[in-house]
Amino acid sequence: MHGVRGVCCLAIVAALGLAACGAPPSAAGGRVPVVAGINAWGDIASQIGGDRVQVTSLLSDPGADPHVHDATAREAATLSRARLVIKNGLGYDSFVDDMLDSTTGHDRRVLTVANVLDEHGSANPHLWYDVPSIPRVARAIADALIAIDPAGRATYEANLDRFNRSLVPLRAAIAGIKERDAGAPIAYTERVPGYLVAAAGLTLASPPEFAEAIEEGDEPSARATHAMDELITGRKVRALLYNTQATSSSTAHVRDLARAKGIPVVAMSEMPPRGATYQEWQIHQVQDLAVALEQAA
Length: 297
Prior knowledge:
CATH topology of the largest domain: Rossmann fold
Number of domains: 2
Number of strands: 8
Order of helices and strands: HEHEHEHEHHHHEHEHHEHEH
Shape: globular
Radius of gyration: 20 Å
Strand content: 5-15%
CATH architecture of the largest domain: 3-Layer(aba) Sandwich
Strand order of the largest sheet: 2-1-3-4
Oligomer: single chain
Largest sheet: 4 strands, parallel
């Protein structure tokens, strides 16, 4: 269910058409205008770009369900002024594609993270949870900014190096889980943390059909619900990873059942909370996961 429900096409096309009439725009102070579909990529772009960029993330509310985002004319106008657009791909932020298709625009670069990571088709779209691959994305963002703003190369390279070094504690925390808890069975309500689960060497025990239904905005089948309930009531998993941004009566039921059975519930959101960097957000979640696995050991 990723993408747009009912985009206001006429308003968006009008906004894009007006913005496209002038010369290639720049942000205030001569900074490079960057638009990201989601704030995980926007934050990384901000860290790499520093004072030379002005980044706008179209999805940034940690309390909202990103699956049902409706693009607005204001967002379309902002995107039309961007020199760099960073989209996730894999259908997650398809509203960005809708806006890009509505204008020829100026000299604008579009970076699709899924293409950088060579992920296609039905791959898990929550690519920002693929921590081992984040340096590849960061390198691609830096290269795009250098191509747009060659004078800033030294700044972008230095910031890229700083960003990659800042990932060391996060990668170490994931490696620590893999060393201590490799193979530990877990369940999740949606495949948001799927890449993290794989990197940490954990075993997904929950039925894929349950997560797939939630991701599509549907209620899981009776069969999938029964299988998930059996895992929880039988205490066959050591933790439940719970997506706090795409919830339903089915996910709330599983969460409450896990708590009643003494299985730790680990909150996993689709976007960083306001004021937190990508690294701070991810390491906090990884640490919570490590504690939960230790409690249930």
